[in-house]
Design a protein that fits this description.
By secondary structure, the chain is mainly α. It has 19 helices and 2 strands.
């Protein structure tokens, strides 16, 4: 996956650019660090001079008099522009999903959907028809809420389904290649054992099998200990289902990162929790709602971390591939470093909780966690948008089996992410297509260092804001 041209891994490219900067020449290093400083400066100006926290320019569409359902809004993010530039033409398909949602499906729903859908997407017109026209302030609030309703209620669930269907279709299509890769690793291990040759580029295949078995056992123990009423057989089912989903979702996250640098991790975690909830409530004797929520959240968190590790590993391997690192040593470093994460995060969460007065309120509102909590409640109450997931999965499966190389994952990600991200990313892709006319040397010596600097500069600025929030006890969105 890492040397496949359409999987650019923009974050890996940016990391590699930093690692190679000392020996890349004065011009490249100057462009890289100059872009880093510029990107960080813009980030701080937006927050401390203009006091804009949401990073959104707009809604620009409403200012221009466009219908609110078109959702013409840009992110104030040079990092997103840089990611689009690094992705290049192969990342353009990702933007198609967003444009299909808001420039095709949204107008169709607004004028030809069910009456309640039309009233939701055209609230001002609906109020006039009902002879209860809204004042200017109420009309602005109602219009501003339309994009969030579209994205949260319709396009995001369908996008999650498309991602799942595309991943399953991709696995089916690539299964012979997966088997061939495993056999080649096994053959290489046998040859090394028989001939006593030195270690190869990869860790031995038996370590992979051991890790899968160990992860299965650990997940089973976590599930069993989550609630006292958890039966051992149910914990075993949760562990098997969770481990299987880690593999499927790991493919989705890795491919999404490779193509766009964005990860649908929260969506994949939501599906994991959905699967776990179904195991808890559909197999008698069913657990109580409270027991179901506790067990599914705890086990789902473990699955979420494992999925994130898959994407992180592929990103690191991409950076190592560019700079000429040995995958074996990178994998060893990953194994050793993985254990530090939970320790640091546990300390961080305890510190934030003490300083912010607890999660879910005040300075630590944790909106993403609140959204996940409400989703879990709807799952327990049998109110999940299953038909949207299913419809999206069917579309994704068809796209994956169409032979158009990974188009399903990109279209699904365009449905899943906010359109403001898609539009800003499209700016970076358009700039790359324009500057490609200057030739490969210009892109290599100027374009990539500048784009990588924009990505790294804003990322470091964001990290510095998080550190500041922890040090001062301000909490916040970070």
């Amino acid at each position: 996956m890492i040397d496949f041209n359409r999987l650019a891994y923009p974050g890996g490219i940016a990391t590699a650019a930093i690692l190679r900067s000392p020996g890349a020449g004065l011009q490249k290093a100057a462009l890289l660090f100059g872009a880093m400083l510029f990107s960080a400066a813009v980030y701080f100006i937006i927050r401390f001079v203009f006091h804009v926290d949401e990073e959104r320019l707009g809604p620009l569409g409403l200012v221009l008099g466009l219908p609110s359902y078109l959702n013409v809004t840009f992110l104030l993010s040079l990092m997103t522009v840089g990611v689009g530039f690094l992705s290049g033409k192969h990342g353009a398909v990702f933007t198609y999903g967003g444009f299909i949602c808001y420039f095709l499906l949204a107008p169709l729903l607004a004028y030809f959907g069910a009456p309640e859908v039309q009233n939701t997407l055209r609230p001002v017109d609906a109020a006039i028809v009902a002879q209860a026209p809204l004042d200017a302030e109420a009309a602005a609030k109602a219009s501003a809420a339309v994009p969030g309703i579209l994205q949260g209620k319709i396009f995001k669930p369908v996008g999650i389904g498309i991602l799942i269907g595309a991943a399953i279709g991709g696995i089916i299509a690539a299964f012979p290649l997966v088997l061939s890769a495993i056999r080649s690793m096994q053959d290489a291990a046998k040859k090394r054992a028989a001939g006593g040759t030195a270690a190869g580029d990869e860790l031995p295949i038996w370590l992979l099998y051991l890790a899968v078995a160990g992860g299965l056992i650990v997940l089973m123990i976590v599930s069993k200990l989550s609630v006292p009423q958890m039966e051992i057989w149910r914990a075993a089912i949760l562990a098997v289902m969770g481990t299987g989903w880690i593999w499927v979702a790991g493919v989705i996250v890795s491919e999404s990162l490779g193509r766009t640098n964005w990860s649908p991790l929260s969506g994949m975690t939501l599906i994991a929790i959905t699967i776990l909830v179904m195991v808890c409530v559909s197999i008698p004797p069913a657990l109580t709602p409270v027991q179901t929520v506790v067990a599914s959240i705890i086990s789902g968190a473990a699955v979420c971390v494992a999925i994130a590790q898959a994407g992180g590993m592929m990103m690191d391997l991409k950076a190592g591939y560019i700079v000429g690192a040995q995958p074996r040593k990178q994998q060893i470093a990953q194994y050793l470093g993985t254990w530090l994460g939970p320790i640091i995060i546990a300390w961080l969460l305890v510190t934030l909780s003490k300083q912010g007065g607890g999660f879910g309120e005040g300075k630590l509102a944790a909106p993403q966690a609140a959204a996940m909590a409400s989703t879990v409640e709807s799952l327990v109450g049998s109110d999940a948008p299953v038909w949207r997931y299913s419809a999206g999965a069917g579309m994704g499966l068809l796209l994956a089996l169409s032979g158009m190389g990974g188009i399903g994952v990109q279209i699904g990600l365009g449905f899943y992410l906010p359109f403001s991200t898609v539009l800003t990313y499209a700016v970076g892709v358009a700039l790359r297509l324009i500057f490609d006319r200057f030739g490969h040397r210009f892109i290599e010596n100027v374009g990539i260092p500048v784009a990588a600097g924009l990505v790294v500069g804003e990322s470091l600025a964001d990290v510095s804001m998080a550190i500041r929030a922890i040090a001062t006890g301000e909490g916040g969105a970070h």
